[in-house]
């Protein structure tokens, strides 16, 4: 077993992520959607950057993740990959690009990998997408699973409330996690499920389990970077710890700039040629 921590690794890989789980080192994961933000996140030492379909919400202003297209995800992923020198970059395959048709799933995954330079893809679901997962993995593309609250299925659920609180759904989630591991997925994201169930899943599979609203007894955590930084203020679920209030900082900067322009204070003589 490697004795090196993730802090002094030049490039994170699936093998290193597995080693981190094996030795009990927690895995850090954040979203990014553009070059500038991804460079800061990568320089900070994050382990995984997720180019999430949450770009549909925080970058494009859609109510759900469903409208974002494969072309748009590739654009965001390409921007992120160009900024990153250390983190492992995972890209969401968007809604409609893999469900129900394994051939289309494979084409979508290959396009993401070839055109963006990303390191892996992420899909939502368990047994119902098994054929697509196996097909993608057969081409040598690393796959991260996603169970629990799956935003691409929001109209099926009808709510963003906690999933798998009842025994039947909890049992299916546990079975799906084991299935994804058996198929060959390198990791699984668990979103908004009871902490006790997430702990059971993390102990039942050998691959890393990353939580978002799934308690602390998993192998790592992921948050949306805009939520963590307080750029978005409307979304404040229990699981979100806001580490900054950049909306206020940015508003102060913008209003001061406007004031200085209006008062003719900017630019002054030293700021002119």
How would you summarize this macromolecular structure in one to three sentences?
This protein has 273 residues and is of the alpha/beta class.
Structure description:
The chain is an alpha/beta fold and 273 residues long. It is 41% helix and 13% strand. Strands 1-2-3-4-5-6-7-8 form an eight-stranded parallel beta barrel, surrounded by seven helices. β6 (187-191), α9 and β7 (209-212) form a beta-alpha-beta unit. The longest helix has 17 residues, at 167-183.
Chart the SSEs and their pairings:
Blueprint: H1 14-22, E1 27-31, H2 35-44, E2 48-51, H3 55-58, H4 70-81, E3 88-92, H5 102-116, E4 120-122, H6 130-138, E5 143-148, H7 154-157, H8 167-183, E6 187-191, H9 195-204, E7 209-212, E8 220-223, H10 225-228, H11 246-262
Parallel strand pairs: 1-2, 1-8, 2-3, 3-4, 4-5, 5-6, 6-7, 7-8
Helix pairs in contact: 2-4, 4-5, 5-6, 8-9
Q: State the assembly state of the protein chains.
A: single chain
Class inferred from helices and paired strands: alpha/beta
By DSSP, the count of extended strands is 8
Helix content: 40-55%
């Amino acid at each position: 077993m490697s004795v090196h921590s993730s802090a002094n690794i030049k490039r994170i890989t699936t093998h290193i992520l597995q080693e981190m789980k094996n030795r009990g080192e927690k895995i850090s994961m954040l979203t990014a959607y553009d070059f500038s933000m991804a460079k800061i996140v990568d320089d900070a030492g994050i382990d995984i950057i997720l180019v999430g379909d949450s770009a549909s919400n925080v970058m494009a202003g859609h109510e759900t993740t469903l409208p974002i297209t494969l072309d748009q995800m590739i654009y965001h992923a390409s921007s992120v990959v160009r900024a990153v020198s250390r983190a492992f970059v995972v890209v969401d395959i968007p809604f409609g690009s893999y469900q129900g048709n394994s051939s289309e799933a494979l084409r979508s995954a290959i396009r993401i990998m070839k055109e963006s330079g990303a390191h892996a893809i992420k899909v939502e679901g368990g047994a119902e997408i098994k054929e697509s997962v196996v097909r993608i993995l057969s081409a040598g593309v690393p796959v991260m699973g996603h169970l629990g609250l799956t935003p691409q299925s929001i109209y099926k659920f009808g709510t963003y409330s906690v999933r798998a609180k009842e025994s039947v759904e909890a049992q299916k989630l546990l079975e799906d996690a084991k299935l994804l591991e058996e198929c060959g997925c390198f990791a699984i994201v668990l979103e908004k499920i009871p902490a006790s169930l997430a702990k059971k899943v993390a102990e039942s599979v050998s691959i890393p389990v990353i939580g978002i609203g799934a308690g602390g007894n998993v192998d790592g955590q992921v948050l949306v970077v805009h939520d963590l930084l307080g750029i978005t203020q409307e979304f404040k679920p229990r699981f979100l710890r806001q580490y900054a209030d950049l909306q206020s900082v940015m508003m102060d900067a913008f209003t001061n700039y406007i004031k200085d322009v209006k008062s003719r204070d900017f630019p002054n003589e030293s700021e002119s040629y």
